[in-house]
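Ticket #4471: structure export looks truncated?
Reporter: QA, pipeline team
Priority: medium

Steps to reproduce: submit the single chain below to the structure queue and open the exported record.
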Amino acid sequence: MSAKAADVARLAGVSVSTVSLVLNGNGRISAKTIEQVRAAAAQLNYVPNAQASGLRRRITHRIALVVPDIGNSVYVSIAKSIQQVAKAKGYYVSLVSTDGIEGADIDALQLLHGGQVDGMVLISLKSSRALEQGLKHLQKPICVIGRVPGNLGVDNVQANSDQGVRLAVEHLLGLGRRRLVFINGPLDTNPAVQRLEGYRQSIRAAGLEERLVTAEFTLEGGYAAAEEALNSYPNADALVCANDLLGIGALKWLRQRKIRVPEDIAVSGMDDIRECEICSPALTSVALHAAERGRMAAQMLFDRLSGASTGSPIRVVLEPTLRVRESTGGQP
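Actual output as written to the record:
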């Protein structure tokens, strides 16, 4: 028997009208209430659509790709790989960008519940109880790229990004740098947590002082973080950036201040996006193989859709690769 709005309201401890407001995106509702309603709806597999049961049985020949930011080169590479696999299978790809909006990835799961797509590849930067509940009660195939909340039993492709940071730090230590500042992303995101752990392990092993700055994972964030890093740690001789956008933003600030890279300070990034090769100086980066993660996630999803894969959830971890360029003393 299908769940009703009243069932969701009862489980969440709110009124039916509040359930409607939350799931339809209307009204001013507290973040706590929104989280409760979404978690309850996910747990009950509730779809606010009278035609949902019919739609759920229909094959659409369409999958969804949910990304945090459609403008980020990493997600563009992933999307291209998924598109190539889907096209070969006779499927279309619906692209959903959550744009960092709280709970938007959970809302996107309704595409599966409502039958608009046959499967989904989900990239989510943050874990939450509501997302965990939503993934737990899915009836259709999904593959998550990145860390899975609560170690849920869904197919999963990850990059070993903490090891990636260790590669960057060891590279800089090998060059004789000893005053490394780590420019990280927001600490409420999974990538930032993993990459901070990699930095801390390497710095502690070397017996050095931790030097940390936090910013958004953007060019603007890197630009502002470079200023904060040099103001807080004026003798810094290396900036270890948690992604390439931070690194390229930092390079711009350093160039404007006529601080030489790598002579005065070395800079490294992570992700190895195409812009690393054309910025000045070219940015040393750790490749996390975005295109390959996308290809593998798509293949895992289509294996589930076709019935070729029916066993336990598959988990794949890709190892990083260091790409040395001018920003740490590599050849142009």
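Status: closed, not a bug. The export was complete when the record was re-opened. Leaving a note from the reviewer for reference: The chain is about 45% helix and 15% strand.
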